[in-house]
Amino acid sequence: MPYVKHHEISLETLKNRFLAAIYRQDAQKTRTSFLMILDAARKSLPEPGETREKLLRQIQTAFLRFKPFLTSPQVGLAAPFQALKTLLADVVKFRCRAVYHVSYTDWHARVNLMPWQMDLLFKNAITVQLTSGCSHFCRRCNEWALPGIRSHFSYDAAAQIIKQLLVQRNTDTALYGASDPLDWQDGAHTLADLLTPVGSAACFSLLTKVPRAGQGVLQTLVHRNIALSVSVTDANRDRITALETQTGINLAKQHDSDDLLIPAGLDEDFTTVKSSITDAYGTEITPEGAFIIIPTFTCALHPMGHKKLPVTRKTAVFPVKKIGRQALLQDYFKPLEVVGHKKTPFHLSKLLDVQVETLLLDNGSMDLSPPGMRNLKEYFTIFQEPARLQRKHMTRSIVQGLKKQFFPHGRYHDLTHEQQRLYRQKIYAHLDFCNKTIVEESRICAVSFFLQAAQNFLAEQEDKKTIIAHLIKPEADQLAHRYGRNARKTDVQHLLSHDINGFFDLFRFYVTALVFDRHTRAVIRFIQAHPAAYDPVADRFVKNKENMA
After folding, report:
1. Is the model's pLDDT at 548 over the cut of 60?
2. Less CB within 10 Å around the terminal CB: N or C of the chain?
3. End-to-end CA distance of the chain, in Å?
4. Final residue belonging to a domain, choices 236, 267, 298
5. What are the angstrom distances between the C-alpha of 326 and each of 37, 322, 323, 398, 541?
């Protein structure tokens, strides 16, 4: 198992190396990278595993997008591509020939976590994928679900997982993922048998396209008052309508449109950036293992619209589960709230690499941000004068809100010393952020923090840097034409301080310039002059006194 996880990471690295070589039009590196991918795929046979097979299918789809270049005489990958295509077809035939069930004992041994890690895995689970592979093969599958059912959790395993979720008071997990929940079965046991004993103790989320063999299970679930929704597209609309007419059941529907709004799966073009598909932070449990899920934009780096980080014994912290409104209120560009061995939540001091990738791609377009989620352009408006005056005007209501939060049914003196201290800090933080000088300082600190994160990331990620450069080049060229001449004559802080209306565009100018190795020295001087950190109590960026000379 350790070899498998190492191999996983290597294949993702090869995927990015392959794409970067294509974007550079480097024929030799493109060919070499693909041949290494093919070799890695062959070594993983006959069971590459769900995550690696998804990567191979993403590579296959990318190949089709750039086929003229890749099959040209100078690259010559027509035959190797056919070999990968045949390999993937053989994997489907092999894995779907005899679907097997994963016991809880086998899964527990596979993830091989310590007790405290297992507790946090279940407590922060946002998804439990009961089945590997899917009876549907939707062109725009957000999860790139594998064609054909490969494996199920056994009934005992699924029941034990649900039990552990309830022990951790996690009652709103999604019981699907890269699969359809109605595909799950174990002998005579169906999803209805699995969920009926839970009753009203939980409100697990179920989203299905209703496999043809699952219509009876769906009817049983509805009659037993187990909530579910149906994902409707042109492919199954008539069948769903007929089912409702036949049974008299009115099903809750999602995605009821001719097309999904966010191209994914086989429609990914690997040349543009789309909105995030995933909007929740937490962990995912699958028959293959366990993962941390971080939302991203949907793009060549992350075609599934999220990043999956394998959970291993080396995993020191888990992101605190955030779904629904909580997740929308989570600013992706702030250090995450996490929980570790001591099980007391705290905030990281830095951004994860995947957060920096999203930051580098965030051009401020509302098309990239799901409704209700704040992008970086919107965030910078909190430093404008109208926002400062509004905060000052709302001071009384802010204090009243803090009172309800900290002592809704008691008095200040009933709080512990630590609670009193935190309450005072929150009030002082609000009052500080009504001060014009501190607002201006915090704005500069925010820019410094983001530029530092970008600089550190780009220094170590050459292939990802190339991919990001390809995706943002039109924007970067436009900004360079607009600001480049002044930037050569003026330092970073001066420009930022004297162009308040164009503040976000100036930030984008500098952060995209780092991707193309322009104005790097000026940016580094600015970062060194304004060391910054995130203050989770104040919920803003401040001077990092530890790094000040």
Report:
1. no
2. C
3. 47
4. 267
5. 39, 5, 6, 19, 21
H-helix or E-strand spanning residue 358: helix 353-361
What torsion, rounded to 10 degrees, do the Cα atoms 383, 385, 387, 390 define?
Answer: 140
- Of 313, 261, 269, the closest CA to residue 290 belongs to 313
- Yes or no: say if 280 and 320 are a contact pair by the CB < 8 Å rule: no
- Co-location of 117 and 90 in the same domain: no
Is residue 306 situated within a structural domain? Answer: no
Residues in the chain: 549
CB atoms inside a 10 Å sphere around CB 411: 8
Residue 335 within a domain: no
Q: How far apart are CA 235 and CA 248, in angstroms?
A: 21
How confident is the model over 287-329, as pLDDT tens digits?
999 999 999 999 999 999 999 999 999 999 999 999 988 888 8
In this prediction, residues 166-185 reach a mean pLDDT of: 94
Cα–Cα distance list, 545 to 432, 443, 496, 530 (Å): 17, 16, 22, 10
124: tokens are 């922060």
Q: What is the rounded distance in angstroms from the CA atom of residue 505 to the CA atom of residue 511? A: 10
* Boundary-marking domain end, from 96, 115, 150: 96
Q: What is the count of structural domains for the chain?
A: 3
| Per-residue pLDDT at 188 | 92
Give the residue numbers spanning the domain of 190.
100-267
> Quick check: pTM over 0.90?
yes
Max intra-chain CA distance, the chain: 79
3-state class of 74 per DSSP? coil
Is residue 342 assigned to a domain?
A: no
Q: Could you tell me the sign of the dihedral formed by the alpha carbons of 459, 462, 465, 469, in that order?
A: positive
Angle between helices 436-458 and 385-393 (to 10 degrees): 120
